[in-house]
Target: Choline dehydrogenase
Amino acid sequence: MYYSEPEAQLNNRQLYCPRGKVQGGSGSINAMIYMRGQPHDFDDWERAGNRGWGFRDVLPYFKRLESHPAGDTKYHGSKGKIRISSMKEGAHAICRTFVEGARQTGFPLTGDFNGEHYEGAGIYDLNARNGERSSSSFEYLHPALSRKNLRIERNVTVRRVLFDGKRAMGVQASRKGEALQFRAKREVIMSAGAVDSPKLMQLSGLGEHALLAKHGIPVVHELPAVGKNLQDHLCVSFYYRATVKTLNDELRPLFGKVKAALQYLTARKGPLSMSVNQSGGFFKGDTAEAEPNLQLYFNPLSYRIPKSSKAQL
Ligand SMILES: Cc1cc2nc3c(=O)[nH]c(=O)nc-3n(C[C@H](O)[C@H](O)[C@H](O)COP(=O)(O)OP(=O)(O)OC[C@H]3O[C@@H](n4cnc5c(N)ncnc54)[C@H](O)[C@@H]3O)c2cc1C
Model:
């Protein structure tokens, strides 16, 4: 439940920036929309000088991680650990109306956002199997839990990386106020996400000298770019009053809640087996754009973002 610092370009508003503080990270709490990066984004990376990051280079890995209902095709794989399911059958009626509306307005439609044509409107795929989240934690970590060379320390917050000169050799951490230290025999891998990794780097003495000095953090290595230039997908929500029943109408009465629960428990179907984001698409904000630069979600319900004080790790 993080909030950003006041954004000068957004009238100093603080934007909601949730992260999953849990095993599996945000992948354990996210909306389960199975969406790869767009091919041209990877090709842009490659053009910027990053060999091995073009779409043709990363596609085999995307195929390898998934078990897709389409089977083995040019764009999909059938033997991976992450189970993909389609929401086409179960999506709320109002989502189909959205897709039909897009068609009538002249926008293209797509049946597979991870296939050949991602531009246009459609119903999203889900990383779920049988109505349950299929995430890196469930599919990769859980089966490996019994390995002798794996130990998970739960409820532990890493406070900083420890260095021997400029070589990372462990981490200092805490669990419910108790100080802990872990030493690495070979390497320290930091995977705390786009928000917490740079924060942890700064706390460890990797960052802009003046900033670290202001907070009394000894500089291990000056890297002024750490913690700067985060670019995220800015999301704007529009709410419309619907003239047909939405999921809010269906789930508000007790009867609706019981029905959805029974549907889920008996058949692993219904709204509780799916994402709140069911339809949407990729569109060009301007016809002059070479590639789509907008992603839409069209949801069958509306909800409020929780107001909280700034969460701290
Ligand atoms: C609400 C929400 C909805 C989303 N919906 C979708 C979606 O539908 N489809 C999609 O593709 N993507 C979605 N995303 C984005 C996607 O989940 C993230 O891009 C992805 O999980 C990022 O992975 P990561 O490993 O980089 O970081 P994270 O998943 O954030 O993992 C970081 C991990 O590090 C841990 N950590 C951080 N700091 C410390 C510390 N100091 N000590 C110990 N541990 C620490 C965290 O607890 C967490 O477990 C969504 C994200 C959110 C938050």
